[in-house]
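[job 0412] stage=fold_complex status=start
inputs:
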Amino acid sequence: MNAANIVSIENEESGTVEVDSMRKSVSVYKCGGDKGKYGKVEVKGKCNSVQVDNCTLLELYVDSVMSTVEVSNCKRVKIIMKPGARLNSVAIDKTDGCHIYMSKETQENTDFQVIAAKSSEMNLNFESADGEMYEKPLPEQFVYTLDLTGDQPAITSKVSDLYSS
Amino acid sequence: MNAANIVSIENEESGTVEVDSMRKSVSVYKCGGDKGKYGKVEVKGKCNSVQVDNCTLLELYVDSVMSTVEVSNCKRVKIIMKPGARLNSVAIDKTDGCHIYMSKETQENTDFQVIAAKSSEMNLNFESADGEMYEKPLPEQFVYTLDLTGDQPAITSKVSDLYSS
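[job 0412] stage=fold_complex status=done
writing structure:
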């Protein structure tokens, strides 16, 4: 990506990033609080994508994001969608603690998905139509079995029983 | 667990662990090779469980294990079941690179399962009845969606499209 299209914030506890074009991407690098206190970064304006890398104890507020919010190598981050924000996907990699607070518009977006690998303590927070708040964990442990009954051997993957309620 | 029931090997490139009772467990800690060359640890005899922790570049040969082979905080390990070895499960946590070589007896054990979290580059290696060798990756990336259509909101987890062949 053309560097001119990236708006960056680096090594800050808190701050605001303003985006003036939906073609721009936002990079949030090594931001966040310490001693149990969260830092806050706010992205103002619709953007193409957001990369959150190497951040600890960060609350990230976002407006609509066209492609993906990527969270990698982070610990204890909150992705908070502002009212009206529509997101299509959040990708989480090598991250411990990623709490996603969904806006009503993103809940209504049936294409919205979270893609995750090598991560733990992830959840989706949202409010149901009747006003009840939910916090749903995203499974991080899976069980694999080898299925030799078909024409070709196959691996079956299922969510660990840990998550059956 | 009673320490008298643990047989340990620590900080060795290679070695052999002999187990004289199925009630004993084996601890393999910080073992393995370097510079791309694998170390080899052999467990001789049936045991209750094997813990493989903090090992890099290790080939671990095992006989039957009653409960679980646990692989955690490792990089590039191979779990190689000796002929006749029957395993029930391998649990993989925070590990990059875990190749499991199945014995015929474990392939026939339909209860055999691999449980994994926060890990990458895992696969199962086995030989089919007609002698063909297989190497099947265990999915490490998952896609989550929120399903609001039922009585209660639910999270749906599926294997990433990366693994559809």
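[job 0412] summary: Helices of chain B lie at 104-107.
[job 0412] exit 0
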